[in-house]
Amino acid sequence: MSEVGTSWLFGFVVFTLIPMVYSLYASFTKWDGISAPQFNGVRKYIKMFMQDVRFWGSVVNTLYYTIVSVPLNIVIALFLAILLNKRLKGTNVFRGIIYAPSVLAGVAVYMGWTYLYGNDTGMINYLLYKVFHIVGPMWLQDSNWVMPSLIIMKIFTCGSVMLIILAGLQDVPSVYYEAAGLDGASTVKVFENITLPMISPVIFYVLIMQMISALQIFTQPFIMTQGGPMFSTYTFGLHLYNQAFRYYDFGYSCALACILFEMIMGISMAIFKTSSLWVFYREDVDSWELEKK
């Protein structure tokens, strides 16, 4: 094994595999993070599914955020990537502008968005009133608007997804488009039969990565809402954090972490199972014949 492979294996075992195994063991213990763990069987899992009133709510909130934000993010990123794939003057500037928020994402950015969403002094409501004469909602104080607010904020960081899809678009051989032009295929037919199939592996990769990231959402509600109002943004990651660092129930937190891992693994496997229906590779596209207009 090469030196690079050995270093990777060492890092994986020490920093990933061992903590995962210990977390699984700790999920069957009573542990406050200070004293030695005491084995108590599956009581933490019984508490999770039968007694914890916040558990199912956090699951629903997390799935809602994931199901809405991930497809929306990918669709908007795809639309922007198609626009920015044109060889026009100033395209590189717009690519940089759209990509910039992805680089800046972090605690400071979320605090900035908190001020933008302010009721009376926020820039968003100010512009809505001045430009459109609309009284904006209480973005982070209304339980009906707070989750859409986090989703809208997520859309503004679609630059990294856009860049990956753009790279996939630029990898599509131009010969396909030339053949489609000779056959008189419409723009919609070209998109359906060439562009979308050719970049489907890229979309598949982006879908998996975005889904994993969305299911682990924590920083945004922690900084901006603390799970409120009325627990409408109380996500799984926030529940896990509170159990460990607010209530010092590290054993239960580890059990929640194991369930989150199983959720991510299960959804990922489901996407992989269905990928054969919609993910195509170049050899598959080569065998197709464009339908006549």
Describe the structure concisely for a colleague:
This protein has 293 residues and is mainly alpha-helical.
List the SSEs and their pairings.
Layout: H1 3-26, E1 29-30, E2 38-39, H2 43-51, H3 55-84, H4 91-104, H5 107-116, H6 123-132, H7 146-155, H8 159-170, H9 174-183, H10 187-215, H11 219-224, H12 236-245, H13 250-278, H14 282-286
Helix pairs in contact: 1-13, 3-7, 3-8, 3-10, 3-12, 4-8, 8-10, 10-13, 12-13
Describe this structure in words.
This protein has 293 residues and is an all-alpha fold. The chain has a single domain, classed as MetI-like fold, CATH 1.10.3720. The protein contains 14 helices and two strands; from the N terminus they run αββααααααααααααα. A two-stranded antiparallel sheet has the order 1-2. The radius of gyration is 23 Å and the shape is globular.
Please describe the structure with a list of short key phrases separated by commas or semicolons.
293 residues; MetI-like fold; two-stranded antiparallel ribbon; 71% helix
Strand content: under 5%
Separation of the first and last Cα atoms: 55 Å
* Highest CATH level, the class: Mainly Alpha
Number of E-type strands: 2
As for the CATH topology, it is MetI-like fold
Our Rg estimate from Cα atoms comes to 23 Å
Number of helices: 14
Let me know the average pLDDT: 90
Form type: globular
H/E element string? HEEHHHHHHHHHHHHH
- Which strands sit side by side, in order, in the main sheet? 1-2
The CATH homologous superfamily: MetI-like
Q: Portion of residues in helices?
A: over 70%
Task: Return the domain count.
Answer: 1
